[in-house]
Amino acid sequence: MKNVTIIDYGNGNANSIKIALAGLGAASVYSSKAIDIAKADYIILPGVGHHGTAMGALHDNNLIMALKEAVFIQRKPVLGICLGMQLMTQFSEESQLTGLGWIQAETRKIVPGNQIQFKVPHVGWNTITSEPSSVLLQGIPTADEPFYFCHGFAINAVTEPAVTSMVQYDKPYVALFERGNIYGVQFHPEKSQECGLKLIQNFLSAGA
Amino acid sequence: MFRPRIIPIILIDESGNAVKSIKFRNKIDLGDPVNTVSILNSFRVDELVLLDIAATKLGRLISLDLMADIASEAKMPFSVGGGVTTLDDIRKILSTGAEKVVISTAGLERPEFIREAADKFGSSSIMVCIDVQKNLFGKEAVRTRAGTNKVSMSPQEAALQMEKMGAGEIIIQSIDQDGAMNGYNLALTNSIASTVGVPVIALGGAGCLDDMKEAYAKTHASAFASGSLFCFQDRGRGVLINYPSKTLLSSFRNIR
Question: What is the pLDDT of residues A143-199, one digit of tens each?
């Protein structure tokens, strides 16, 4: 049985991720304790809340070092979903704060030229570009199967070598990145029907 | 490619049954809502909205047990509304696994509540539903309390205010078109969708998928919701829970 720890930033909810994991036969805990990061085989940074509140909670619970050890020394696979992905970047315009800085990228507000045509947040089902070398997208026909997005902030580009897939809204944004054991998705796989579950399953198959 | 969301709306009445109304009256019983949701689930719907239309009147919150049942099956986003008046109500609904709460009466009568809710739970979790009805002279006014109370604001003013307070999405519902199955109020929908920068969901009047396509072509709305279209076989209103196929949905991609 694979043990997944979903990081609790306080005030969030991760019930939909827990349900998805249970359906895939993985045990999960929703926790803000360093001990649960140490026990985990896999770590998920979920996608609910505000960047500043989430970084504050990680800091207050002394999770930043615990996460760093799990991700960079023990090399546990970690998946950031939506806000969780944005936390992995160096900076977010939402809070004007530095993030975990695990990946060379910045999180910026989506500001379309035409705000009547392109509403913010970007909410809905959108397809992403195919990336054959992606671990998470193995076996998923990305051209036909959209994922569910809901975000007002986004990553324009990853500025270091990484596997990336893009989503087109008013312009292209990073929909997915992978670098070693670090995985990020801007969309919500736990709310993206069968293909979303397949993606989570692929994550759980990633070598620890 | 981006395509608009096509959203079934399930209404729940005093008895806890799923119903479908016409002009907020003449309710047709659809039976157990868990059953309805379970069928819609199997059709892989884009998103689901559940509204308890008796909650405000009865001073209750939508049944959380029902929400938990639905969350355990839903592989798609779902939003829940009905009787939401406190931050704790929102917390309870989101903790069942719902993505968003729908607030109507409490937000329109006390706009500060939307700001508090958005600050605590994030704008993307907060949807505001604005119900609109024409008066005898054809002037559109905002209604609250399931259509029984008139608010002294135009729909456009209300939408702008709700956006400013932090609503992440706005449902614009035409009470006059509710259950009519002959098309959305396009002028109303577009006046709101051209006013605010957050996504607008059209509700009230869809009778076939072409009504949604027309609204997508002619307005700036981001999503199209309906009760009747997904509950009834056709305008004869024989109950048949249904949802368009993936291929039909793909045809929305080339409209705008």
Answer: 989 999 999 999 999 999 999 999 999 999 999 999 999 999 999 999 999 999 999
Assess contact for B40 and B8: CB atoms under 8 A.
yes
CATH 3.90.550.10 for domain B5-254, yes or no, is no
Instruction: Provide, as residue numbers in chain A, all residues whose Cβ is less than 8 Å from the Cβ of B198.
Output: 119-121
Joined together, the tokens standing for residue A194 give 């069968």
Residues of chain B neighbouring A20 (CB-CB closer than 8 A): 75
Three-class DSSP category at B230? helix
A188 is catalytic: yes
Amino acid in position A127? T
The answer to whether B75 faces chain A, any CB pair under 8 Å, is yes
Task: State the pLDDT at residue A12.
Answer: 59
Judged by CB atoms closer than 8 Å, whether chains meet at A119 and B222 is answered as yes
The string of pLDDT tens digits covering residues A15-53 is 889 989 999 999 999 999 999 999 999 999 998 778 988
- Residue A120: its chain B contacts at CB < 8 A? 197-198
Domain that holds residue A30: 3-205
Q: What's the CA gap between A205 and A142, in Å, rounded?
A: 19
Contact B2 A169 (CB under 8 A): yes
Task: Count the neighbouring beta carbons within 10 Å of the beta carbon of residue B246.
Answer: 12
CA distance A47 to A26: 19
Q: Is B107 helix (H, G, I), strand (E, B) or coil?
A: helix
Of B43, B81, B24, B53, which is closest to residue B201 (Cα–Cα)?
A: B81
In the stretch 60-119 of chain A, residues with CB closer than 8 A to chain B read 115-117, 119
CA–CA min distance A125, chain B (Å): 6
In chain B, residues with a C-beta closer than 8 Å to the C-beta of A51 are none
CA–CA dist A101, A116 (Å, integer): 33
Which residue, chain included where needed, has tokens 């829970």?
B241
Domain ranges (residues) in chain B: 5-254
Q: What's the pLDDT tens digit per position in B182-231?
A: 999 999 999 999 999 999 999 999 999 999 999 999 999 999 999 999 99
User: Which of B45, B49, B75, B95 has the highest number of chain A CBs within 10 A, making it the mutation to test binding with A?
Assistant: B75
Single pTM value for the model: 0.92
Which domain CATH number covers A79? 3.40.50.880
